[in-house]
């Protein structure tokens, strides 16, 4: 078949233009500087700039090479943020610090330039185990909530939240979780040791969330959303309340969802489950397959403590919820290193637990990641039932010293560089010696986070489109590559 001369010229022009465009893209990428930040065990490297590299033209990687292949044109979930919980414990410890240490602490977490740029915050609806005592916002027995007051929180917790928001330039996505309804609303007449919400108090408890939101927002603290119940399948020695999947579904669709809507709070985001990865798929199926419940639900929250009974963390369950309900979101709502031991402040596997979880959770569709307490004291508390734990930062309230653990820096490899609104992009590692995830920020910068938990230094190729750069990561290290 003879091609007309005009068509042939058009095709030739298009091919040349396309080739030039591709060439310009490749050259632009090749000219881009890669800034490498590293935190490594047995070194002084802590989120330290360690290399400035440039891309060169890529060659076919060999099977003997280790490569991280990034494809920025394939995008996934939008990034909501990374942060931690401001509990009573955190706020009480903060209040005991000297003013200069308070400012240092706020800057280290919430300042994007000088700190690690937290953008997400969880807090509790009245007391949790990380409070000095059990308390609620009403007088016991007040089902009409006439005595509702957040005066307790105005002493420590609310002032710290306000300062955190200010340090974060006024932008800190804040959500809240209850550990238990008031004792009289429960089958056990006790905030501790489990029990269930009595059916006659379903509406009163839904009204309690509304009161909380309105009270906090009156204080100038916007509430982005709520989880229904912290760990609804765990009978704990501290504040706890049990919900089956059916009970949580019915409370959402018959009480909490309609009540928020009626009170003009229908824009608040409801997060279900708020417990471990083990049963999150079962919970999501029960609630999200019910259209009347699902219409009120933003997404599924989860924790990382499923290995309490043995076994490994079940990252694949996150992916299964992501695949089954792509129109709903996933949010990591709590994780910490349990069983506090002051001799292990600098215990590196604690940090690697964070790195492994964050990379896997993001790669499986999670939009945001929330650590537990942002600050605890030299005893891993205060905690009114002795459930002492680690935080990324501890304070010695006797000396005023702030102690930064490796976990703080590992979290910072994500939170400092991946900004709100970024999109996760496609990436893969060719060998199991490293794990990695990548995001594309709104300003066009790409962030690739890499973790090496082996005892050896590893050389790898970062491959992006038709370009590559050779990078070395030390043993037991985390790197962030920005380009």
How would you characterize this protein structure?
One of its GO terms (molecular function) is glucosylceramidase activity. One of its GO terms (cellular component) is membrane. Belongs to the glycosyl hydrolase 30 family. It holds the Pfam family Glyco_hydro_30C. The model is unreliable at about 1-30 (pLDDT under 50). The strands form 3 sheets. Strands 2-1-21-18-17-16-4-19-20-3 form a 10-stranded mixed sheet, with helices on both faces. The protein has an 8-stranded parallel beta barrel with strand order 5-6-7-8-9-10-11-12, surrounded by 7 helices. It has 11 helices and 21 strands. It has 2 domains: about 35-75 and about 425-480, Immunoglobulin-like; about 80-420, Glycosidases (TIM Barrel). The protein has about 475 residues and is of the alpha/beta class. The chain has helices at about 5-30, 90-95, 100-110, 155-165, 200-220, 245-260, 280-290, 290-295, 315-325, 350-365, 405-415; strands at about 35-40, 50-55, 55, 65-80, 80-85, 120-125, 175-180, 225, 270-275, 295-305, 330-335, 370-375, 375, 395, 400-405, 425-430, 435-440, 445-450, 460-465, 465-475, 475-480. The two termini are about 50 Å apart.
């Amino acid at each position: 078949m003879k091609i007309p001369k005009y068509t042939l010229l058009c095709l030739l022009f298009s091919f040349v233009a396309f080739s030039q465009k591709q060439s310009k893209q490749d050259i632009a990428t090749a000219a881009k500087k890669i800034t490498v930040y590293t935190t490594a065990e047995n070194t002084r490297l802590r989120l330290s700039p360690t290399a400035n590299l440039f891309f060169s033209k890529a060659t076919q990687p060999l099977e003997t090479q280790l490569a991280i292949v990034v494809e920025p044109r394939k995008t996934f979930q939008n990034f909501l943020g990374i942060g931690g919980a401001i509990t009573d414990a955190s706020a009480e410890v903060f209040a005991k610090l000297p003013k200069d240490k308070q400012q240092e602490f706020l800057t280290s977490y919430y300042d994007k330039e000088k700190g690690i740029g937290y953008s997400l915050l969880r807090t509790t609806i009245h007391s949790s185990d990380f409070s000095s005592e059990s308390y609620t916002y009403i007088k016991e027995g007040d089902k009409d909530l006439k005595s509702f007051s957040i005066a307790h929180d105005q002493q420590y917790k609310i002032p710290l939240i306000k300062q955190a928001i200010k340090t974060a330039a006024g932008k800190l996505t804040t959500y809240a979780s209850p550990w238990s309804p008031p004792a009289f609303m429960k089958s056990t007449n006790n905030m501790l040791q489990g029990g269930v919400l009595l059916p006659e108090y379903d509406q009163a408890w839904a009204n309690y969330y509304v009161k909380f939101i309105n009270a906090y927002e009156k204080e100038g603290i916007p509430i982005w959303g709520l989880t229904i119940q912290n760990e609804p399948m765990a009978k704990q020695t501290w504040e706890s309340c049990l919900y089956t999947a059916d009970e949580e579904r019915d409370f959402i669709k018959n009480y909490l969802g309609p009540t928020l809507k009626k009170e003009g709070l229908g824009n608040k985001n409801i997060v279900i489950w708020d417990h471990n990865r083990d049963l999150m798929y079962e919970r999501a199926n029960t609630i999200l397959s019910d259209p009347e419940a699902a219409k009120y639900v933003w997404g599924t929250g989860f924790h990382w403590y499923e290995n309490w009974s043995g076994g490994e963390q079940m990252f694949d369950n996150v992916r299964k919820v992501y695949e089954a309900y792509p129109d709903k979101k996933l949010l990591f709502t709590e994780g910490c290193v349990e069983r506090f031991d002051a001799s292990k402040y600098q215990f590196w596997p604690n940090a690697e637990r964070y790195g492994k979880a964050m990379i896997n959770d993001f790669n499986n569709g999670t939009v945001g990641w929330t650590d537990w307490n942002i600050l605890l004291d030299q005893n891993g508390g205060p905690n009114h039932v002795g459930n002492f734990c680690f935080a990324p930062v501890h304070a010695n309230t006797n000396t005023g010293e702030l102690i930064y653990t490796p976990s703080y820096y590992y979290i910072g490899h994500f939170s400092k560089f991946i900004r709100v609104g970024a999109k996760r992009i496609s990436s893969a590692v060719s060998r199991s010696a490293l794990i990695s995830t990548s995001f594309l920020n709104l300003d066009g910068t790409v962030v690739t986070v890499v973790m090496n938990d082996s005892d050896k230094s590893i050389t790898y190729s970062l491959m992006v489109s038709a370009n590559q750069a050779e990078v070395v990561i030390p043993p037991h290290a985390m790197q962030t590559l920005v380009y």
